[in-house]
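May I ask you for just one protein sequence along with its backbone structure tokens in two labelled lines?

_____
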Amino acid sequence: MNKYIDDLLEVLDSAIADSSSHKIAQILIEWNQTYLQRNARDEKVSTSINELINSDKFKIAFRLNGNLGSILVRTNIVKKIVSLVPRKIIDVTVFGHPKPEINQEIFSDLDFIDHVQNYGDLANRIKKYHLVIDLDTFPTVIYKDNEKIKSKVPVYIPMLKEWDDFKNKHKEWFKNIARFRPQIYTLAKMNGKNCINNMDIGNYLGLEDHFIYSISPDLNILDVAKKFNICGKFITLNRGSYTLKNQSEGTRVWPLEYYNQLARLLKRKYPQFQLVQLGESEECLPIDGIDINLCGKTTLAELKTLLHAALLHIDGEGGMPHLRRALNAGPSVILFGSTPKEYFGYDGNINLSSGYCSESCCELHKNWLHKCLLTNGEALCLKELKPAYVFKCIVEYLDKGEHVHKSQYYDGLYEGTYKFIHDKTFILDKTWVDEFIKPRAIYSYFKEKIKVGDLFCMYYTPSKIWERRPISESNCLTFLNGNKKAYEKYNKFKNDTYAKDSIHSNERFSSLINQLNKKHYNPKYVIVVNGHNTIMDGQHRACWLLNKYGPDYEIQVIKIYGDIEVR
């Protein structure tokens, strides 16, 4: 304010020679208008002089509830409401986030907002406006001057009536919105709405299901990249807001071990891309295998720039994906847990969920953020969203775009498949390779130690469907335990109803057992599994090892990822 006073005195010195007080007042008003416009980018302030200048305008205020993501989403309805009337007749104030620096980064460039205040500043200012709207799950009018609305912005009258009718019809909802949000989400999904346009009661505003405004990064990506040693294209990863040490990670955060495995897969497949971890605090648990950890090290301005420039962003549902969408940047991979992807997911993003639960448990009980209803702890919906599936979806996106050179093919095989087949450090079954592997794309593979008892197999049931079962339930064990007829019957049933299989027979299995008993197990003849530790090849050998050494016996397997069955 000192600079403002100094500048004002300079103007008065030049105007004081004119004895007309009316002329001096005119100069002051014009100068204040210019001054405020010139400084609007740096600080959208609401001063007494500003209010004097705009005394003839209709003053509307919005209070935006929620965290960063919610505020970004709710700013859409602010823009839509403001756009209904000529911009020159309306003065718009937003009461946004409690932190001024967040408000500055979100609202400073938005031309449909004149002033920004912190969330808690509204209480003593309500009657300074002609209309005050609280934006939460639905819009609610806190205060209105009916005469001013009628004379200045009559177009708002049917909109406000629509809101009042809706509130009267759903009185119980508005008494305790949190209690009824599960019903609200379900109704929104039935009506084809999402978190953005569900606030448009009665579809009066015609609010669309995507962002209708965008914010811009303020910093040059080259400067930010240089500061953090980022070179070339990069992928950002974040594990949400509930990932601090000694704190429950909750039902929206993908397990750290899954992030570790995904990072390892991405580096093997795309070594040319840097993996950059983002996070609100330095105490965020680090992901193994990333190139750069920026948890707690970026300003919001730097975070905006990084999210805008990233090739891809991987995260749970939360603030950063909403911010990336508001920045009009590229897609995000969203790993949905307890929150419904139909409501919080955006078109253009890669929205992934396990489908383990048919319905979301979001706000279904008071501890929904921290405890799974089924386990009273770890969220099963996230546990069942496996890294192999997430990796497969990312590869499909990246390899279809212009982000990477198309993989070369050797002898008609996908590059990764060719490398897998011709790796001399292990031996694969030739028939299995010819019939199953060669037609497919193997993106990545590596060796991993695992207890034989932790393996799974696929079992063809009497209902003629394949089921994933623990290896202890394999039909091969019935043979090893002396029931050769049951094994023979199973193979005949599978041959007759599913597909001809001349490989598996009592004679062949007996021959394998004799070889193993004489020469023991040669680890070079590897057991191959997918990302879920389901055996792709080598089930008979694995069962022999289980029968001979027990479930805790450790073996080295080859784990493969690609366009193979992953569940």
In short: The radius of gyration is 31 Å. The chain has three domains: 40-203, 221-400, 409-562. Residues 21-38 form the longest helix (18 residues). The chain has a mean pLDDT of 84.
